[in-house]
């Protein structure tokens, strides 16, 4: 892979605008899934089930539904109409967007490979919306869209924080499914976690630098000549966890944030937690910057939405 030199030069400038360099860098950047690694120091199946059920429960609280409404509102403000539209929801999870899309009158195909998340979605879909939603329990990146007949078949392709959207090849497959719009959201920088920052100091571990997928996506869309609208937001929320619950999940948390999980590290971390949070409750903040991208395929010109009359 080509690399930038340490001195300013025309070669460096050419690399910054080299499609091949950006595609290769994105495809080959270090990545991992805490739920798929066989060497993970915890039961990945149990951890995924716990995450899935918690995610589902949080998604359908009032706060979770309001968050979905805000994202859909931002999309609508770009001129998108869901009523009567065909939507491909990639990485639909338990239906946090699939269901409100259908409520707005869209016909939705929800792609979700997890059997657990699919079952949670099926339990949550109101009976009156069942005919508006088709569930495809497959990995989007492994689907042949020509075999499915999905080429240019959807008005909108939507992928919110979908792990599959982590290289240009998969993004391009999503674009090939869409007639009008593709929405993609990803991490846009390093994750923030106040408790993990404390433990990094205790364990003398530096935080790894991660640019986030949005940096690659934005640059490639720009270089390939696509029209798009994007917004970067910082979203941080406050949480609490019981000391004993955290101690039980400590190998998973440390592994997720790329810290050592050997016996010495776990002992140091546990001692710090017990000595620091003597009341048994740990408050912390967690979040990140997130990028939201709406690719406009049908019309290259800026769209405007009429102002609401007061």
TrEMBL record:
SUPFAM superfamilies: S-adenosyl-L-methionine-dependent methyltransferases. One of its GO terms (biological process) is methylation. InterPro entries: Methyltransf_25, SAM-dependent_MTases_sf. Keywords: Methyltransferase, Transferase. Residues 87-179 form the Methyltransferase domain. The keyword Methyltransferase applies. GO terms for molecular function: methyltransferase activity. The keyword Transferase applies. It comes from the Bacteria. This is Methyltransferase, FkbM family. It comes from Paenibacillus polysaccharolyticus.
